[in-house]
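Regression report. Comparing outputs from two consecutive submissions.

Submission 1:
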Amino acid sequence: MKHFTSLLFLLLACSSVYAQATEEEIEKHRADHLAYLLDTTSGWLNQQEVEDFGGLDYFDFDSTYQVMAKITKDKGRKFKMPTSTDRLPVYRRYGFIDFKIGDSLCRLEVYQSLSYRKKDKRHLFVPFRDATTRELTYGGGRYLDLTIPEGDQLLVDFNFAYNPYCAYTYNASCPIPPEVNTLSVPILAGEKTPLDH
């Protein structure tokens, strides 16, 4: 099974902890993501899956979901994160991010993959669910990728929230967001359930 981090080279959200992406940059990111997904040489979708693919669907760009968050380092024990298969990748909680969506205070745990950490020590993984899950967005939750900042503030851009590859193919093995990372508010940004699902 291929690991979800093969997508990381596409994730512009990792490029900066403070610079807000423009609508044009996010549109280009989405177009690149679609091209990568439909390229059978990438190894994700086979030719039949590409032919049956209905397309990607997104919320409109919304700068109100580009929020500044406080990050608190609070490392936890190593643990095996459940996935959609029997694969159990090892993660460690790095800490928490606290932010506001409208008037609601929100907190998400952020994790480091111990295998991917060898390649990028600053990468953080944020699997989450929110009030749109199973209604407007994929039932298995969505992901964000962040970069550890120098200080205790970083930009969290939910316009970059993306689906695990399990949303498109059974050939993927995707981490399942821990229950603690369920937001009660709707995140009306980022990727929706794929079309024709």
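Submission 2:
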Amino acid sequence: MSGFFVPVIYGSVRSDRQGIKAARWVVNELRRRGMDPILIDPMEYQLPMLDRMYKEYAPGTAPALMESLAKTLRAADGFAIVSGEYNHGIPPALKNLMDHYLEEYFWRPAAIVTYSGTRWGGTRAGVQLRATLGEMGMVTIPSMQPIATVQDAFTDDGTPADPKLAEYSARFFEEFVWYMNALKTQRQHGVPY
């Protein structure tokens, strides 16, 4: 099965953010593999600090951008989460953006891509994301894709500096597609609640 619709949810609003290059790489890789990705950038949505979740608005009364994002998330076959590591944790912009929604994520797989400016590649944020995404009703795939020294890893358009990155990340993307196939099939037969 191909042509899956995949929101790539990116989590930084810093003025000199480097991780956007990694997010663009994920979009490019998914597209190259026949998927239909869309980049969800918190800089574009500018959601306020969480006060009311989308589901807490009466139907038709949520702000237009929030309504638009809810529709996008509901249509997803899976989510690729691209996260930096801020003080060994998840960036606040990512957590805030995602916390505005809940049921829109249910019963879909999530692939975690982490990055940092160091050689550790944001893996500690990835460990925290597993717990958070699970609580939001997503299934995280077994593999994670860390990106070390993100500032040097890509050009601005997401082209890898190391041409072997496609080879190194192949299993990660193959697992993600497998889980999208499996969970889509199961959702078609119904969900537990």
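Expected: both submissions complete independently.
Actual: both completed, but the second showed a warning that disappeared on reload.
Relevant detail on submission 2: DSSP finds eight helices and five strands in the chain.
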